[in-house]
Amino acid sequence: MTLRVALIGYGLGGSVFHAPLISSVPGLDLAAVVTGNPERQEAVRLRYPQARILDSPDRLWETAGSYDLAVVTVPNRQHVPLALAAIEAGLPVVVDKPVAATVADARALATLADERGLLVIPFHNRRWDGDFRTVRRLIDEGVLGGVQRFESRFERWRPKIKPGWKESADPSDAGSILYDLGSHLIDQAVTLFGRPQQVYAEIDVRRPGAAVADDVFVALTHIGGLRSHLWMSATAAHLGPRFRVLGARAAYVVSGLDGQEDALRTGHTPLEDGWGLEPPESYGLLGTPGSMRTQPTEPGAYQDFYAGVAQAVRGEAPPPVPLADAILGLEIIEAATRSAKEGQVIKLG
């Protein structure tokens, strides 16, 4: 059974991530793209001539029976309204991160989805980064021994502000780096180690003229005392390692970023040979001082997210990312915001 997908939004998220990934998964058909922008409409016609172009979400709801899945990839403030509308129209929905600007809004979305018996699946694609898949495998196989400290970074050197909604101070835009990059970092930590017991954060606005946080540190304490230390910054003049995982038996450290985003930006797709493979010079190191050895990186596999979505919509498997995980991530973000404001550790209920 081929699932007909309607993509709402064709900006960076829609054109670079969702459309190419949807089109790369057997059993998914990019049947429609919703965008009112004439230039983006023309871009859709050129790359996806089979897709119907709709100029507004209302056009989609009018013909909802022609589709099996909606994907919401628009500015953050529209995530919940459009996801709610999709559910009201009878469509399961994939929603870009962050799913909502507040825990309360995300829970309201979950309530309606449960009432209608429809799926809401957060697009937390970074679970399929090659370096994260490597970390997960090493932990699962016990190679590192008991993990004591998990360090994870998304750091950039972008000292000049790029105007846009991601720099908006309006809470409805969820514009800070904590919601943008932090959503990924927190989700990865929760995927590995579960719900933390405590949250501590340092949240700063560093760049002249900036209105929202652009330099953030979040510390999570998990059951048993394991700690996740997460850095996200637009003002890092030196980039730290992407992951540094310290275990009782060994450590794993890797630098740089997974290459799938850059590949997608340049027009490549998972249908091509060698997709997701990292060159040997990008491999991490595994071991202890004096005996570190190269550790090949697992292939990145963003397409596996949508393969999982297809199975979930057909009722063949649970969703690849549960909505409850995204809600927990928002709980942690809200606890981090409170921690930074009050200068204290926040205990999660």
Describe this structure in words.
The protein is of the alpha/beta class and 349 residues long. It has ten helices and 15 strands. The strands form two sheets. The protein has a nine-stranded mixed beta sheet with strand order 14-13-12-11-7-10-9-8-15. The longest helix is centred in the last third of the chain and has 20 residues, at 323-342. The chain starts with a strand and ends with a strand. The relative contact order is 0.15. The model has no long low-confidence stretch (mean pLDDT 97).
How would you summarize the topology of this molecule?
Elements (H helix, E strand, L loop, with lengths): L2 E6 L3 H12 L4 E7 L3 H10 L4 E3 L2 H6 L6 E4 L6 H10 L4 E4 L6 H14 L3 E4 L6 H11 L6 E9 L21 H17 L4 E7 L10 E7 L5 E7 L9 E5 L3 E4 L5 H6 L18 E4 L5 E3 L7 H11 L9 H20 L3 E2 L2
Helix pairs in contact: 4-5, 5-10, 7-10
Task: Tell the overall outline.
Answer: globular
Give the termini distance in whole angstroms: 43 Å
Number of helices: 10
Structural class: alpha/beta
Short description:
This protein is of the alpha/beta class and 349 residues long.
Q: Key features?
A:
single chain, 349 residues, alpha/beta, nine-stranded mixed sheet, six-stranded parallel sheet, 15 strands
